[in-house]
TrEMBL record:
It comes from Halomarina rubra. Residues 87-253 form the Methyltransferase FkbM domain. Keywords: Methyltransferase, Transferase. The lineage of its organism: Archaea, Methanobacteriati, Methanobacteriota, Stenosarchaea group, Halobacteria. The keyword Transferase applies. One of its GO terms (biological process) is methylation. This is FkbM family methyltransferase.
Length: 278
C-alpha cells in the first residue's frame, strides 16, 4: 500500500471509529507471525541483502513488514562505489547494513537509543558490514536530553518504536538520558568523512539535525539527502514541512516528496549530479 493510500485508509478508519479495532487485529496478527518466525530474517533489495536479528515483535516488523522498502530501494540506487553513507537515526541498522551490502561504501550510523545501537552493532557483525556506530543524537546543541521510550507489552524493546526527544506535554512510558551533539562539530572532532548520501529519520528532530549539520550537508560532495518529516511534532515546535524543505534548499538541494511510507512525507534532496532513481 502506498503512503497516500495508507493515510486515506487511516483517515477512513478513524472517521468511522474503527481505527482502534483495526490496529488491534493487525497487532495480534503481527504477534502470531512473530512467534512463528525464525530469529533471523533477511531483506533483499536488488543485489543488496542483509540478515537481521528478530527477537522482538518490533524487530520482526522492521524486517518483514516495513513500508520503507521503496525508500530503501531509492537510497541504494543513489549510492556509488566508494561512497560514504550517513544513517542518522539508524535504529537497528536496516538502512546501514543494506547500504554496506549494496556497494563498496563506508557507513556511518548515528543511534542514541542504547538497545537499538547495541543491536545495530550485532546486525553489522552478523553481516560482516563496515558500519561505524555512534551512540549520539545529532542536533544543533551539545547537551544531555531526555529521550521518550515507548513500551510494548510492558517492556522496552529493540526495534522501531517512535522514540523521540521529550517535549512539554508529551506522554511517554519512560525516559532515558542521551547525549545530543552539534553535528558539524562532532564530524570534525571524530574526523568523520564527508557523506555523499544521507538518510535522516529522527522522529521530529529533523530541523535540529539539519541545522547542526549545515556545513557538512552543504559540502559539494554531499549530493543526496533523504529526510522523513514528522508533521505533528514539527507543528508542536512551531515549524513545518515547508521549513524543512527550505532548509534543504538553502544547502543547495532540489527537494521533492516521492515517498510517504508511514503517511508522513519522506523528502529527497538532490544537488546537481545527484543521481537517485526517479
Amino acid at each position: 500500500m502506498s503512503g497516500v493510500s495508507q493515510r486515506r485508509a487511516v483517515d477512513w478508519l478513524k472517521r468511522f471509529g474503527l481505527y482502534g479495532a483495526a490496529t488491534s487485529v493487525l497487532r495480534l496478527r503481527g504477534q502470531l507471525q512473530f512467534r512463528l518466525a525464525d530469529d533471523v530474517g533477511t531483506i533483499t533489495i536488488g543485489d543488496a541483502h542483509a540478515d537481521f536479528h528478530m527477537t522482538t515483535p518490533n524487530e520482526f516488523s522492521a524486517v518483514r513488514d516495513s513500508p520503507e522498502e521503496v525508500v530503501l530501494a531509492d537510497v541504494l540506487a543513489a549510492l556509488r562505489p566508494g561512497d560514504v553513507f550517513y544513517d542518522v537515526g539508524a535504529n537497528i541498522g536496516v538502512f546501514s547494513c543494506l547500504a554496506a551490502s549494496a556497494v563498496d561504501s563506508e557507513v556511518v550510523a548515528f543511534e542514541p537509543e542504547p538497545k537499538n545501537a547495541a543491536r545495530l552493532r550485532e546486525n553489522a557483525q552478523l553481516n560482516d558490514a563496515d558500519v561505524g556506530v555512534h551512540g549520539v543524537a545529532l542536533s544543533d546543541t551539545n547537551e544531555t536530553r531526555e529521550l521518550g521510550i515507548t513500551h510494548f507489552n510492558g517492556t522496552h524493546q529493540t526495534g522501531p518504536a517512535g522514540h523521540s526527544f521529550v517535549e512539554d506535554g508529551d506522554a511517554v512510558d519512560a525516559t532515558i538520558s542521551v547525549d545530543s551533539v552539534v553535528g558539524d562539530e562532532y564530524v570534525e572532532q571524530q574526523e568523520l568523512p564527508i557523506p555523499n548520501v544521507v538518510k535522516i529519520d529522527v522522529e521530529g528532530a529533523e530541523g535540529a539535525v539539519l541545522s547542526g549539520l549545515e556545513s557538512t550537508l552543504s559540502h559539494p560532495d554531499c549530493r543526496t539527502v533523504y529526510c522523513e518529516v514528522h508533521e505533528d511534532r514539527l507543528q508542536a515546535q512551531g515549524s513545518s514541512v515547508a521549513d524543512i524543505e527550505d532548509e534543504l534548499a538553502s544547502m543547495g538541494f532540489a527537494v521533492d516528496v516521492p515517498f510517504e511510507p508511514y503517511g508522513e512525507p519522506f523528502l529527497r534532496g538532490r544537488k546537481s549530479g545527484g543521481d537517485a532513481s526517479s
